[in-house]
Amino acid sequence: xxxxxxxxxxxxxxxxxxxxxxxxxxxxxxxxxxxxxxxxxxxxxxxxxxxxxxxxxxxxxxxxxxxxxxxxxxxxxxxxxxxxxxxxxxxxxxxxxxxxxxxxxxxxxxxxxxxxxxxxxxxxxxxxxxxxxxxxxxxxxxxxxxxxxxxxxxxxxxxxxxxxxxxxxxxxxxxxxxxxxxxxxxxxxxxxxxxxxxxxxxxxxxxxxxxxxxxxxxxxxxxxxxxxxxxxxxxxxxxxxxxxxxxxxxxxxxxxxxxxxxxxxxxxxxxxxxxxxxxxxxxxxxxxxxxxxxxxxxxxxxxxxxxxxxxxxxxxxxxxxxxxxxxxxxxxxxxxxxxxxxxxxxxxxxxxxxxxxxxxxxxxxxxxxxxxxxxxxxxxxxxxxxxxxxxxxxxxxxxxxxxxxxxxxxxxxxxxxxxxxxxxxxxxxxxxxxxxxxxxxxxxxxxxxxxxxxxxxxxxxxxxxxxxxxxxxxxxxxxxxxxxxxxxxxxxxxxxxxxxxxxxxxxxxxxxxxxxxxxxxxxxxxxxxxxxxxxxxxxxxxxxxxxxxxxxxxxxxxxxxxxxxxxxxxxxxxxxxxxxxxxxxxxxxxxxxxxxxxxxxxxxxxxxxxxxxxxxxxxxxxxxxxxxxxxxxxxxxxxxxxxxxxxxxxxxxxxxxxxxxxxxxxxxxxxxxxxxxxxxxxxxxxxxxxxxxxxxxxxxxxxxxxxxxxxxxxxxxxxxxxxxxxxxxxxxxxxxxxxxxxxxxxxxxxxxxxxxxxxxxxxxxxxxxxxxxxxxxxxxxxxxxxxxxxxxxxxxxxxxxxxxxxxxxxxxxxxxxxxxxxxxxxxxxxxxxxxxxxxxxxxxxxxxxxxxxxxxxxxxxxxxxxxxxxxxxxxxxxxxxxxxxxxxxxxxxxxxxxxxxxxxxxxxxxxxxxxxxxxxxxxxxxxxxxxxxxxxxxxxx
Length: 941
Known about the structure:
The strands form eight sheets. This protein has a seven-stranded parallel sheet with strand order 3-4-5-6-7-8-11. Strands 28, 29, 30, 31, 32, 33 and 34 form a seven-stranded antiparallel sheet that branches. Strands 12-17-16-15-13-14 form a six-stranded mixed sheet, sandwiched between helices. The chain contains 22 helices and 34 strands. By secondary structure, the chain is an alpha/beta fold. It has four domains: about 45-430, Alpha-Beta Barrel (TIM Barrel); about 450-640, Glycoside hydrolase family 3 C-terminal domain (Rossmann fold, 3-Layer(aba) Sandwich); about 695-820, Sandwich (Immunoglobulin-like), CATH 2.60.40.10; about 825-940, Jelly Rolls (Sandwich), CATH 2.60.120.260. The radius of gyration is 34 Å and the shape is globular. This is Glycosyl hydrolase family 3 protein. Keywords: Hydrolase, Signal. It holds the Pfam family Glyco_hydro_3. InterPro entries: BXL, Fn3-like, Galactose-bd-like_sf, GH, Glyco_hydro_3_C, Glyco_hydro_3_C_sf, Glyco_hydro_3_N, Glyco_hydro_3_N_sf.
């Protein structure tokens, strides 16, 4: 794969260099019809006056309505479709005279992936002269935009959309780890930077809308698209998604995907339509809807991609409930919904809920779809849409509503004020600039997780290791960094190259591949044990011989484009092909072995965990992956990533993920063998949140303030972390909560906070978390989000299973909390001759709590200044219920009390009023004249 791509890039670069000579790209872009372009505004409809929609000073809503009322049905319907770019659907890189006869003569909603270099799956990047350099690419998109601004009646600019989950998809751009790797950084600030860079590079290249982030939550590790999720925790997905969107939307619109419940398909079987995820309504809300709800509300997400699965028999694409009631009415989404691929077509080709395309169009638009986006001619959607409106099958006002959303986004991202990317020279300076590449390297380093490090095998000492054996199908592979949905043709440092560069002149590197990623019979070889072929055995023997000659062996295994990705779910989580045999053979040499995993999903590396001393999980670490891993191997960087996914020991444990319900992961017996009671493998290989370091960290001083709150109050959790080892390093401090007693079953642990901190040896830092309503809510039996009064366990630690500190937070309802506060305030005005700790019981409103004393004891109440009192209500208690004598005394100050009432208690357990001659007093005292008498409640009048 690597050699094929290298050859292709050589040819592509040659073609591009030739093309660059044919045209000199100007430093700035200027459109040709100068009469349209005025200072401060553009005459889009060419009528010579500034219409409201052309006025930058007008409100967005006013501009939308003014433009909408000028549009014909043909122009409206053209806004509701995407035209896929060059060599996808559009055959032209630049406008041609024929465009004036095409459907898009009346405008188009979006053009997707135009000139981004991607042609089709399995094909090399496009060699069109307008793909690269960045300045030429921006110029070309401007030329396409100019057609829509200058040559259509109303001049509505097009929204240039593109992928961007690991950097903007372009011939070249800053190349980050795939989204799963980014999730393992647990670094909000870093993800924000990734969003900023991706959005800024996209805009400089001419794009205005990026299809990112993916807000799906991982549930089944066999799923092919696990490589694209941030992790299994909806809270973590939301937190990182918010930062990604905030970064992106400083420059472009962000479109989150895939809405809704897309990642929970049955048994990881996709069938293109991902039919009917098997999950309950509560699970859908708590896991899958949670990130979308928060990212929309907290980050103002401008785009949502509707998924093509159904849920509970209802296709999402045709569901008014999901696309309108939930998404718009409840979550407040104000952007536009774009369909994922053939989601509209699937209503009749897969789901069977529409009889034909026309009916599928009607259902989708009525449900809430704004823009159909798939690899088909836009006519296939627009023409039946127009027919429906003309025939009365679809109300034109519904079309108006959908177009309003599209236009709103175009106004919000500035397309009507600055439709062109005019700084062409700036594009060459911005894309892949040094500062961006430094962030990409940081992301690659922070994404790596140290899974095992027995006897401090790592880091390697570059001064004593003189020969290093490197093998494995991913050792000299770079294809993982050059897949779809990101930059396509950047320079990639492989693990082998990274090691060679690191030890250059200091150690010898012995390399052989060892085995291919998969064998000739894969995936059938996962269920049938085929013998090694002579060629396979010979290549493993080469790796063994290198290992015997070396001081240490680095084996680089895992997955790749053949084993993971869209529509590439697996039936096993074991190492594919001959990889395990290679690892076992190298390990058998007795030399120290370091296993590096490069893959897009958790793998059940049970044998490696038991026998290999050091294991690094690198996911797909981006173009800088080889540099990052070499830095980690030799101690120039201390790995600090933590797992955002669960590693099952076998697919037989699936579903096995975080968060989980209490006791749901507890299995049968624990004694193995013929005389034991164990029937299945228990526990995770590596749990959520797990990750090691070259140093050690100590947690201390957990404080929760206040310890009691109402549902809408906040609590602060503080703790200290100390680096107790010899290396500087990062620790991901994780905070978990558990609702101790609830009306419905809740998760055993909920991730409620995390911070990645850097500590020098011996350094201590205080970490602060704020808990508010969103951290304590549950979805009750009526599907309402509530915070139920009660106790919440607060847990802080290094993983979901490595809890270092525990505390308790109590939530009281507002009324109870208010009464308690008032009681404490009142209690501060109460004193007693004995048992002073119980004085608060007389003002708490509860008859079953009391202050108790014996003969001669008294309890005193400070009255408000200048109070004149002539009555008090008292509830007494006495175990034997015999009559008890008491006195009521008043004091005018100076410590002298005078008796104003003497009496006998004849009725216990209820408030009884006692009247006396009133006078101005500062204190009231109740004196007991018998033993073992309690005062349960006092009401001063």
